[in-house]
Amino acid sequence: MAESFVRNSQTLSIQTCNNCGYVDKENRKTQEQFECRLCGYKLNADVQASRNLIKRFDKRMLVYGKKQALKLQIEEFIANLQLERYKCLWSKARGLLTQNPYFKDYLSDSLLTRCIDGYS
Q1: Which one of 15, 25, 27, 59 has the largest count of C-beta atoms within 10 Å of its C-beta?
Q2: Signed CA dihedral, 11, 17, 23, 27: sign only
Q3: Residue ranges of the alpha helices (H) in the chain?
């Protein structure tokens, strides 16, 4: 019997909020505790990381490295923040994004800039 498997990088899965998609090193408070700096979502850090990996697999987001993982996570984060339920987070997001090194290359991106300017 032939078996197949998919190898998926764990990159950023421990730093990404499963609720809103915000990526930040500071989201992982301790080895066991995850709390999103943007939306306040709290969960056991390992459960949080596992949910992100499951979500990637379900969406067929095969990630092979940090650069690709970051690009995909930021795209998902931008899409999430355009949803009605996340519009209330834009003023807080504006401050966090300008301080977050993961987003520095994307702040010049016109879509991200339009979203920030449009919802703040």
Answers
A1: 15
A2: negative
A3: 45-58, 66-81, 90-99, 110-119
